[in-house]
Write a structure and sequence with these properties.
This protein is mainly alpha-helical and 196 residues long. It contains 6 helices and 2 strands, in the order ααββαααα.
């Protein structure tokens, strides 16, 4: 058991260092992009800064979302398997070994992460810069995407349905589900760019 715990701790540290390094590198690049965006002499440079900020926002949203899923699962004392290699989705949740309550903690914590990232962005970032607009578009767009893909599952589990059954039925929709969510996210992001 001690060896398994040690392996899990090592795997978790590896994932945390990798994801944390990505976040720090992107934050540093956004600081540079922000100053570059203020001095950009052409529309191409201006738009390139916005696109880079948008892509960074998508990565931030994903990392925060996944780590909040993980935190929710750990708080609920769920059975998890950490992946040994670096991965964007770095753990697996055992749907057969965990309860519906544990699934809801995992699920809702991920959604909470997206809202917390949005709140942090609104509170801490300097508004009206092209970097801010790009980040806001990505974070809001990703939030809408996640709400459309994940929230219906959480709602059905809250009503007492089995998580595995709900997930299977929900994701059996396949492409149309993700297309609707992608259109909702892209539409939201486009609206942010248009309004700013």
């Amino acid at each position: 058991m001690e060896s398994t715990t040690s392996n899990a701790d090592t795997a978790l540290m590896r994932q945390a260092l990798a994801h944390g390094s990505v976040v720090l590198a992107l934050v540093a690049s956004l600081v540079v992009a922000n100053s570059w965006g203020h001095t950009a002499s052409s529309d191409i440079e201006h738009y390139a800064t916005a696109v880079w900020a948008f892509l960074c926002g998508l990565v931030f949203s994903h990392i925060i979302h996944e780590w909040c899923h993980y935190a929710g699962a750990r708080i609920a004392k769920s059975m998890l398997v950490l992946k040994s290699s670096i991965h964007p989705i770095f753990f697996e949740f055992d749907l057969e070994m965990n309860t519906s309550r544990q699934f809801l903690c995992l699920s809702l914590a991920g959604l909470l992460g997206n809202f917390l990232l949005l709140a942090a962005l609104i509170t801490c970032a300097a508004p009206h810069s092209i970097v801010y607009v790009g980040l806001l578009a990505a974070v809001l767009g990703q939030l809408v995407f996640v709400l459309m893909v994940e929230l219906p599952v959480s709602i059905e589990v809250i009503t007492g349905k089995n998580p595995l059954t709900v997930l299977t039925t929900h994701f059996d929709q396949g492409g149309p589900l993700f297309l609707r969510a992608a259109l909702g996210g892209v539409g939201t992001a486009a609206l942010v760019f248009l309004l700013y």
